[in-house]
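Morning. Coffee machine broken again, so started the prediction first thing and wrote up yesterday's gels while waiting. Chain of 121 residues, entered below exactly as on the submission form.
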Amino acid sequence: MKTDKQITGQQGEEHAINFYLQNQYQILATNWVYGHLEIDIIARNQDTIVFCEVKTRTSDWFGAPHMAVNKAKQRNIIKAAHHYICKEGIDLDARFDIISVLIKGDQVTLEHLPGAFTPSW
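Came back before lunch.
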């Protein structure tokens, strides 16, 4: 049985996927795992592969959800993305997005932060 936190996270990811689809992105993978690392959404937008971290909260008491994507989390996403690119033989520009989702009752606020962080390859 899923915890409330897992259910909230899943709802946020569904909102993020719908956002990308509505904006003509092609979803390549969701919850892609490399070892203990995970990328929430991998998508393609024209000639760019997009690696997206989705952060979902039910309150902004501690700040906007995207504020929880710290440097260590960014490094882990970049590391996993590197393995995905190598494994799949991807030859596209890469971008790292964050989608911040705030769910308060029936109200959903989604903020898309394209290019929220960049790797130092």
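The domain at 4-117 is CATH 3.40.1350.10 (Trna Endonuclease; Chain: A, domain 1). Going to sketch it on the whiteboard this afternoon.
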